[in-house]
Amino acid sequence: MAFVMSALTTAMPTVGVRGNVRVAPKAPAQAVSLVGSMNGSVSLGREGVESASFGVEAGGKWFMISHGNKVARLHRPADQRKALLRNLTTDLLRYGRITTTMARAKAMRKPVEHMIQLGKDGGDHKKRQAEAYVYDKELVAALFEQAPARYADRTGGYTRIVRTLRRRGDNAEMAIIELV
């Protein structure tokens, strides 16, 4: 029983960005096929030949690179992230000003401005849309009463983000987000 290192190096997975190209020994010309695998990598070529795959492997998990993705993930799964944004939106509409991290403040700006725009437009359908997102129905009723008069001269920019001191402990960027 001899330990052969060369046999193990070809079977070991690569770590990091998968952009390498492996070339198999020459074989007779075959039909070109598009082969997909479960990890998101796609190879184009003859059978047995793996081409470049695009993704990042970190700790055994595959992550696709998110170029052009404008949604802040906030280090949470989708359901927790949506619930967090709904809670923050409800609190901002209730209190008018809250202190949170800069990333959360930037992420919640869009849904808050959308709720205020729904309140300005009025109507039953818009009110049902706002009630489906905001947790407090009395708050939605107050929003639909006060928003048209308060924001009549504005076409957008209903929130203001002000930077504050960094949080003690983890040094996270903090901000105050408030209704204008």
TrEMBL record:
Keywords: Ribonucleoprotein, Ribosomal protein
Pfam families with a match to the protein in the record: Ribosomal_L17
One Gene Ontology cellular component: cytosolic large ribosomal subunit
UniProt name for this protein: Ribosomal protein L17
Organism: Micromonas pusilla (Picoplanktonic green alga)
One function term, GO molecular function aspect: structural constituent of ribosome
GO biological process assignments: translation
Source lineage: Eukaryota, Viridiplantae, Chlorophyta, Mamiellophyceae, Mamiellales
Keyword Ribonucleoprotein: yes
SUPFAM superfamilies noted in UniProt: Prokaryotic ribosomal protein L17 (SSF64263)
InterPro entries: Ribosomal_bL17 (IPR000456), Ribosomal_bL17_sf (IPR036373)
Similarity comment: family membership: Belongs to the bacterial ribosomal protein bL17 family.
